[in-house]
Amino acid sequence: MKLKVNARLDADFMPMALVYRDFTDRAKKANGQSLVIGIERNGGFVSVFETTVFPDGQGHDEENLEFVERLVKSLLWIRGGWKVIIAGSRKIYEGIDKAYKANGSRKFDFDFMAGVYEKEFTVEYRDIEDAPVNKESATPVGRHLDGCRIGFDAGGSDRKVSAVVNGESVFSEEVVWFPKLNADPQYQYDGILSAMKSAAEHMPRVDAIGVSSAGVYIDNKIMVASLFLKVPKDEFEKRVKTMYIDIAKEFGDVPLEVANDGDVTALAGAMDLNDNNVLGIAMGTSEAGGYVDGAGNITGWLNELAFVPCDYNKNAMVDEWSGDYGCGVKYFSQDAVIKLAPAAGIVLDEALSPAEKLKVVQGLMKEGDERAAAIYDTIGVYFGYAIAYYSLFYDIKHVLIMGRVTSGEGGVIILEKANEVLEKEFPELAKKCVLHIPDESSRRVGQSIAAASLPEIK
């Protein structure tokens, strides 16, 4: 595959955006057939995606299935859902149905989605004449800055908290912690409570608490969250699911709002830019995504871009948690920096934590080390092609990046290379889509300040 902008440290990179463009162009020239993919989630809401594939039984069945499997994977983790509907190709349906079983190749996704939506995961076939149609929802979010508020951002390597009084941050704190390594949820409880108490000490009172955290949340309950990776299932049900609700009670009967950290990233961007159609991406322990639509609302989508494929290369690095290859978590997180370090000629001490390894590379970047620059250059190329792929699923005017990986000069390089990819490879998208990186202070603690605006004080 010929790229107009090469990934310096990854010669085998196969961007999903180019694969999609090439596949659909070839399928159309071969008198391809329409395929409609529907994803149903809670409330009966359905997201629909239409594409073109090669006709069944014409020598492209395996290629069709491999292509559509990546699309279904992308749609599930962007939109979220417990049912996949395939309309237009029974052969493709049969392959997807086989993959999404308890013993199938996508068993992680099968189990995860069933757990989040608390329904048995199913794959359904329909004729193209009976294809599903869109049924979407969106709700207003955040932008409340009155009163004395705590904003908490729960990262996998560090936790950040801000005290916000009438829209102004009067205190911010960042503390390293290791929630993913602790099986006793008391560790996470104590860390969250300690952070919030630190913020409360800098305000006359606490009127509301907003939380930004990786994972899936319904009615402020923790449905799935990587922060509690080691916590046994029975302990999760008893002590984790209502943890933010329980901690908020320590501060009295105050409004609480918990949101996915990606949506809070997008909210931070929309507030700062005073505009909408914002895709927010936080590059930290993992890749968090969020979206604010054209009306300034969040969509109810999952937006878990960490598990969305960005590299079609089957030999790409596998994510340890999901067991899948080429997904965003290994391209837009501290794992990406660590993954690329050997190719750049940087040897990292294996005794260091992932966050400490990232700091080593960031230190080299500050010293002007060209090896470190090559890492960020490569991530920038990854990112430019990923934005083009994400634009198939989101209407994007602005992309905002935040998080630990974007700190310092490395973040500037990421944006420069991403812009180069868009201008050379996707000029029409480059004209309508602007990439942003906030100032250093906002980049590190902006999530917690935006989180503070989530709850409404009644």
Percentage of helical residues? Answer: 25-40%
The helix count comes to 14
Oligomer: single chain
Radius of gyration equals 22 Å
- Neighbour order of strands in the largest sheet: 8-7-6-9-12
Shape: globular
Structural class of the helix and strand makeup? alpha/beta
Question: What is the number of E strands?
Answer: 17
Distance between the termini: 56 Å
Estimate the strand proportion: 15-25%
Mean pLDDT: 93
Low-confidence stretches: none
Biggest β-sheet strands, sense, barrel: 5 strands, mixed
Explain this structure to me?
By secondary structure, this protein is of the alpha/beta class. It has 14 helices and 17 strands. The strands form five sheets. The protein has a five-stranded mixed beta sheet. A four-stranded mixed beta sheet has the order 2-1-3-4. Helix 2 packs across helix 3 and helix 8 crosses helix 14. The N and C termini lie far apart (56 Å).
List the helices and strands and how they pair.
Layout: H1 16-29, E1 33-40, E2 46-53, H2 61-79, E3 83-87, H3 90-99, H4 107-117, E4 122-126, E5 139-140, E6 148-154, E7 158-165, E8 168-176, H5 186-200, E9 208-213, E10 216-218, E11 221-224, H6 233-240, H7 243-248, E12 256-260, H8 261-273, E13 278-283, E14 287-292, E15 297-298, H9 334-344, H10 354-366, H11 370-390, E16 398-402, H12 409-425, H13 427-432, E17 434-436, H14 440-452
